[in-house]
Amino acid sequence: MFGIDAADLVLILVLAVVLFGPERLPEYSRKLARIFVYLRGIANNAKGTLREELGPEYADLELKDLHPKAFVAKHMREEIATIEETQRELREAAESLKLASKEVEGATKSSMTDAKTALKQDELPSPAAEEELALAAPSHSPYDPEAT
């Protein structure tokens, strides 16, 4: 109610009793209630007049909808829903990428293990392979540094 919490309301009541006194407080509270009823009637008449002048196409018009925050929220719901759908799709894509990266990581580890075992088997050359390596290696011609 008007942004007044219980503590503020009690403070206002205490101030009213002190300022007006307990004798005149009921009289002033009745006057204040009549003022609120009068103002509410003016507001309702203004809403009714506005609806009559705008016509039937604005029959569902609510003044609450004309508040800037409510107006923006009403017109942005579709865009917000689209953004939320995109976020959901991105989360799903991220999860699928995580699963794919785990699969690739597992395949890479198994390939590394296979390659390491293959290298260990190839590290022990046979004597025939050593002779072939020796023959295939380029032989150096004798070099005489004083010959030039």
From TrEMBL:
<keyword id="KW-0653">Protein transport</keyword>
<keyword id="KW-0472">Membrane</keyword>
<keyword id="KW-1133">Transmembrane helix</keyword>
<keyword id="KW-0812">Transmembrane</keyword>
<dbReference type="InterPro" id="IPR003369">
    <property type="entry name" value="TatA/B/E"/>
</dbReference>
<keyword id="KW-0813">Transport</keyword>
<keyword id="KW-0811">Translocation</keyword>
<feature type="region of interest" description="Disordered">
    <location>
        <begin position="101"/>
        <end position="148"/>
    </location>
</feature>
<dbReference type="Pfam" id="PF02416">
    <property type="entry name" value="TatA_B_E"/>
</dbReference>
<feature type="compositionally biased region" description="Low complexity">
    <location>
        <begin position="124"/>
        <end position="139"/>
    </location>
</feature>
<protein>
    <submittedName>
        <fullName>Uncharacterized protein</fullName>
    </submittedName>
</protein>
<dbReference type="GO" id="GO:0015031">
    <property type="term" value="P:protein transport"/>
</dbReference>
<dbReference type="GO" id="GO:0016020">
    <property type="term" value="C:membrane"/>
</dbReference>
